[in-house]
Amino acid sequence: MVKTDLYEYPPELREEFEATEAIQFRDGSSATAADVWHFMTEIAPKRYPFAYTQKKYAGVRLSRDIHLPSAIKNHYLLLTMNDRITRSRENGAPVIFVQGGQSVDPYYAAGGIALRPASVGLWARGRHEGLGLNEEVVRQHKQKEKAYHAISFEACQTAGYENIQEGGLPIDMVAPFTCLRCSDISYGVEAHRHGPNKAVKLMNIDYPMRHQADKTWAVEYFAQNLRRLTSEIGKLAGREVTDADLSKEIRLHNEGRRLAIETAELWWSADLPPTNGVDRRSLYQMGGMEVHGDPSASLTVLRESHAYIKERVNKGIKAEGVVDKPIRLFVCGSCVFPNDFRIEEAGAIIVGQDNHWSDISTLVEEDGDPYQNLAHAILSYPYEQSVEVRAAWTIEQLKKSRADGVLFLYQWGCNTQSAIARMLCDTIKRDTGIPTMIIEQHEGGSEQSEQLLNRVNAFIEML
Ligand code: SF4
Questions:
Q1: Residue 310 C-alpha to ligand 1 middle, in angstroms?
Q2: How many helices (H) and strands (E) does the chain have?
Q3: Are strands 23-24 and 30-31 parallel, antiparallel or unpaired?
Q4: What is the distance in A from the centroid of ligand 1 to the CA of 211?
Q5: What is the pLDDT of residues 8-25, one digit of tens each?
């Protein structure tokens, strides 16, 4: 065990943890629980000390609910991003940047690795070793400053295009969905078209709008876009992509989506919260959203953790650090994750989010043409529909999760979500009476701004 002033996993936990299951990776390799324990207690504290900070309010703090295997394995997968993605790419898997809240099934079906904005940031972060929390926050802010100059001061800069533009990350293709939900896509794609790193292939997946899932032409058109996408990724991966490849991938991701739905419903049904907010979010993200760059690995952790959640709910076991009857907050909007530790200390907990829950909770039909099925599912995501449809779906989630209040959060520069916030919140208040609060924040990074958290905590007090 490394002796430092950083957080240390209790050594007495080792035996219990090492009896848990191995993580199975997509390339056929695996990491036993002993491998994970060794990395998290001996290697990562030296390479990534910022993650082991004891500072109470740091957003990057490790989950302290250490008897839940995913609380450690999720962090293992996040802290090994650079090692794993670099190795897979060297072994021939092209890395594709994706944005727009879409399903990643087609990217993996074609032999690629799909990295969303958060995952691009995690990969970039993993290439800078030995940084403490303050040094890591300064690094992030310097990187964002470059993006404001290279792209535009008007954009939110969540995506991490600056890492690609500068050639700092070897991304093979930029292929986002050009849907309305995210204005950063348009800024980023346009900047990329004119930017210094033109060697990176650029492809847009055109997303038709307005009652799109009900129109045959829109589903067919979108399915053609998906075929074009898998074909282009297949060329980079040096393989022909068949319909069977996509069907297989859809089945794998559907298993994750089903497990995520079951886990969320179990969680919502419990009298006492079975996990803290950080672990709740990481669990549902493992089922379909995919932040680790390896859907098979995420799924093995989700399968194992689902059983733990079931047991905790059946036995009435509450997560550490959470009060008995917390105020239940549901978060709407985009790309803002308020500090769960601070919220839990104030007597509340985040019970759900609309962003990404919309795509994780949409299953894809498994019989028939996989491209048409996937196109229909993606065009049906509630988050991408008109405000009335999105509000009706959100109200359903608020009822299921027994939310006491709604926080609508978005980054400065997020044009669509800032325009939708008022309409969505007014509809929720009119139809349910649940209090809502809208907060815009400047790109927060790991340190989290006091302004955001003061307002969130004032809302919790009011509730
Ligand atoms: S905050 Fe808004 S504009 Fe920025 S990446 Fe998220 S959805 Fe896109």
A1: 34
A2: 20, 12
A3: antiparallel
A4: 22
A5: 999 999 999 999 999 999
Between the CA of 414 and the centroid of ligand 1 the distance, in Å, is 5
pTM of the model: 0.94
Name the β-bridge partners of 437.
407
CA 42 → CA 1, 130, 401, distances in Å?
6, 13, 39
Per-residue pLDDT tens over the stretch 404-460: 999 999 988 888 999 999 999 999 999 999 999 999 887 655 555 778 888 999 999
Q: What are phi and psi of 66, to 5 degrees?
A: -75, -10
Alpha carbon 239 to its chain centroid, in Å, reads: 28
Helix ranges, 270-294 (H): 277-285
Domains within the chain, CATH numbers bracketed: 323-353+386-463 (3.40.50.11900)
CA distance 271 to 313: 8
Name residues contacting ligand 1 (CB within 6 A): 156, 158-159, 181-184, 334-335, 410-411, 414, 417
